[in-house]
Amino acid sequence: MLIIGVILFALGITVSIALHEAGHMWTARKLGMKVRRYYIGFGPKIFSFRRGETEYGLKAIPAGGFCDIAGMTVHDELAPDEVDRAMCKQKTWKRLVVMSGGIVMNFALGLLLIFLLAVGWGLPNRDDRAVVDALVCVSPSQAPKEQDYALADCSGVGPAEAAGIEQGDVIVAVNGTPTPTFSDVVTATQPVTGTAEFTVERGGETLTVDVPVTQAQRWVNNRDSTPENPLPPVSKEVGAIGIAAPPAWVEYSAVTAVPATFVYTGDLFVQSVQGLIQMPSKVADLWTAVTGGERAIDTPVSVVGASVIGGQAAERGLWEMFIVLLASLNFFLGIFNLLPLLPLDGGHMAVAVYEKIRNSLRMRRGLPAGGPVDYMKLMPLTYVVIAIGGAFMLLTLTADIINPIKIF
Cα separation of 251 and 210, whole Å? Predict the structure, then answer.
């Protein structure tokens, strides 16, 4: 199943790339420009065919694609039928629409994936407060990892319910220690013996409830465990009161999934921007992973690494994680292409905006519009961007082969 999952995720990436380039192609055609070639992949050509005035094809390395629009720069050689349809001669808004077409397609695909996730599986619960979802009895013991840490059967009323805690209460403190999340409640309760003072919010009021804490066997995190030296959980007698955490995932109908999709997408956007900002600082971590050190789980991955992680999720039947990863990749790809650097889409958009502003200023001074930007003067900077980007991709690919991320 791992191999199937890797193949499926790789196909998902290929579809994302294909739709990105299709966004450029469809908008260019709609606005009267000529699309010469539409290819997925780089390197040696596997096959191609022509339909109308466009050549379609697939190349051997599925790490990108390109859409060749006639006259993307002033240096592009034009056939007689391409002169009036050259992209560089079109109005600024048309050029911006075409160059943003691929980015919009990535965002649209990401939104669609999140909507399908919300309807099919649900979305992660964004409310991380310590809300009491249910009141239960206290199980006396917990099975080991091999049995999925299952709790033993129990019966009767739990200490929390007997003391007066109600479903929907928000626990804000245990013995005066603030508990902003449910895990904080667990951490504050487990060391307690005897009675603990729980501060809860209910219906706009703050109440104090004294709860007798029961001792029960549980598997807990090893205090000596560190990221560099992770240790397995240990079995201990700890305090428990019989409350259940809210579900990690919230299910939605097709109607309620719409606003939830946009809210969750906003979270992914923020994470994608943060990841993009942090990329330069991750070079040292990647180099450490390549040279035999620990591979941090938050280091960037290549197409290969992303496919392997997607395969790991599929192998365990975690299709919701599979979909989130693919949606996140689309959002990141869209945001990355907005960077105002050539040869990215954002670089071409920045040139178009610059020409518009420059010509507007010239017109105010009574001067004629200037000519198209000379891309040859920008080539040194473009080569630097390509070299840095290529080196970073090679580093991530090497890390994914030598020391891949393992999420399980």
Answer: 34
Q: φ, ψ for residue 306 (rounded to 5)?
A: -60, -40
- Cα–Cα distance, 374 to 195 (Å, whole number): 77
Dihedral (CA of 376, 378, 379, 380) sign: positive
Q: Which residues pair with 142 in a beta bridge?
A: 151
- Coil, helix or strand at residue 231: coil
Measured CA to CA in angstroms, residue 387 lies from 17, 286, 384, 393 at distances of 21, 17, 5, 10
The catalytic residue positions are: 21
Of the candidates 11, 13, 7, 1, the one whose C-alpha atom is nearest the C-alpha of residue 316 is 1
pLDDT in tens, 347-386: 999 999 999 999 999 999 988 888 888 888 888 989 999 8
Model confidence, pTM: 0.83
pLDDT bracket for residue 154 (50, 70, 90): very high
| Nearest-angstrom CA–CA distance, 287 and 269 | 27
